[in-house]
Amino acid sequence: MDFDLVVRNGTVVTASDIWESCDIGVKDGTIVAVGPRLPVAPGAQEIDAEGAFITPGGVDCHVHLSQANHFLHSLFSDSYHEQIYEATVGVDIDHSVITNGVVPDRENYVSDTYDTGTRSAVAGGTTTVVTFASQMKKDESIIPVIEDYHKLAKGQSYCDYSFHVIITNPTPQIVENEFPRMVDEYGITSVKLFMTYKPMKLQDYQILDLMYSARKLGITTMVHAENADIIDWMTQHLEEKLMTHPHHHGTSRPPIVEAEATNRVICLAELMDTPILLVHISGGHATKHIRDAQTRLLPIYGETCPQYMFLLADSMRKGDFEGAKCVCSPPIREDKSDQDAIWAGVKNGTFTIVSSDHAPSKYNHPNGKQRGLQHGNLPYGKFHSIPNGLPGVETRVPLLFAGGVLSGRISPQKFVEVTSTNPAKLYGLKKKGSIAPGFDADLVIWYPQANFQPFNLTNEMLHHAIDYTPFEGIEFKNWPRYTIIRGKVVFSHGEVVGEMGYGQYIRREKSLLPGPRDVWLSEWRP
Ligand code: URP
Ligand code: ZN
Ligand code: ZN
Question: How far is the CA of 229 from the centre of ligand 1 (A)?
Fold first, then answer.
């Protein structure tokens, strides 16, 4: 047979099966054959997997890169009474400052851009990312926003990529006239909304407006579910008591904050009969609301992230301020029972996907995590000014493989399902997420287990532009040996060997998972 590449002798895993002593034949970037002892014509490239696991390339559908909000120094914090909110709603924000792929001042840039973020992705076995094109509150059209992010990403990406759009201002013009263009012209079939963060949050009425149009167009709505008023009230009252150390970020957002908003938005989605994905779920209480809705056959999907599976809130208690490194929203939880509920939710299918929520800010940077130290003279600063979010695009797949599969917590098939197959299905990436004829040849070849020397992670080993990892010191019992995208090796034995610009923009189809049911709660119909 006429292959360009044959990967030999692997233990090939899909979301349903495992085949030992299996070969994969690739032609023109596509998998064309899977089976034992494939014949190889002279000139074809061969890679010997030496019996090691081969899994589909990771598909990470929650990654923040070059986001204007980050560029504007971290709107992802709750310091709403500071000027930043005013700047966002009142003053012109020029998207062009971040366009054409040119980062104005790389040293001063606080987060990851398309080049550094996707370089990090491939080094951790991720072959496709879906990042965010983020509307600003004042924007009255999302088309220039999408165009701006295209300019940022074009020619800059090491892996394939697509966009979700963050909606902060769902005007009738946008949801009625521009959503269809977003789907048809740009191949974007998902939007994210926020129920918290003053510069971004939507009221329930606006959420219904958005869902109404999303349902008609087969768009999946991603929801950041936290109760904004509880957070504001708690923050104010904690500050009055000088309880502002980074770990009080968690005190201000106990699990009920997430659970209430999760339940509320599930009710709105049931009313509107539309599919939603609850993103970055952190606690057992919210997990139960999602599980109960799924038991009632509602098209409610759940996402969790490695930080909620592998870390606990003690990570925010380190030092006077070092805990800021682990400040993200929802917060990493105090209670082991929440972590256990998250693992149970991964195993029992409540969580459709595990994403990184890679949303980093440098630690040693005045507009990064250090912003939390800028107000007052407390050595431990103020948690509400710390930019929220963590780096994790490179560690997601290896953490789930080593800490999930090799530790016996999840099966290899479940690992593939939540890190690759389901994200691809949920977001309409039809050629991604499996190892079968017709799929893109996006593969991760692991090390043969017997030869692998376990190591403890340090930030220097990673390929992002961030000066720390929240997973520092964790032991890894394996790591991707090769990452292959559309038949080309882009990462090999610790080195990124792919080129910036190889990554292609992917237009997405509608979700391949169940959608509206045509079941209504009253006589009203859309
Ligand atoms: O803390 C987080 N997760 N920051 C990133 C923005 C978001 O809410 O996804
Ligand atoms: Zn979020
Ligand atoms: Zn996020």
Answer: 18
- Please give the Cα distance from 14 to 75 (Å, whole number): 39
> pTM, whole model, 2 decimals?
0.95
3-state secondary structure of 479: coil
Establish whether residue 465 lines the binding site of ligand 1, counting it when its CB lies within 6 angstroms of any ligand atom.
no
328 lines ligand 1 (CB under 6 A): yes
359 C-beta closer than 6 A to ligand 1 = yes
Q: Which amino acid is at 275?
A: P
d(CA 351, CA 280): 10
| Residue pair 398/480 in contact by the 8 Å Cβ criterion | yes
Kindly state the percentage of the chain with pLDDT values over 90.
86
Answer whether 329 contacts ligand 1 (Cβ < 6 A).
yes
Q: In what order do the strands lie in the sheet with 220-224?
A: 58-63, 126-134, 160-166, 190-194, 220-224, 276-278, 300-304, 351-354
Mutate to test the pocket of ligand 1, among 164, 304, 388, 390 (most ligand atoms within 8 A of CB): 388
Q: How does pLDDT run across 175-231, given as a tens digit for each residue?
A: 999 999 999 999 999 999 999 988 889 999 999 999 999 999 999 999 999 999 999
CA 62–ligand 2 middle distance (angstroms): 9
* Ligand 1 atom nearest 329 alpha carbon: 1
- What is the percentage of the chain residues whose pLDDT exceeds 70? 92
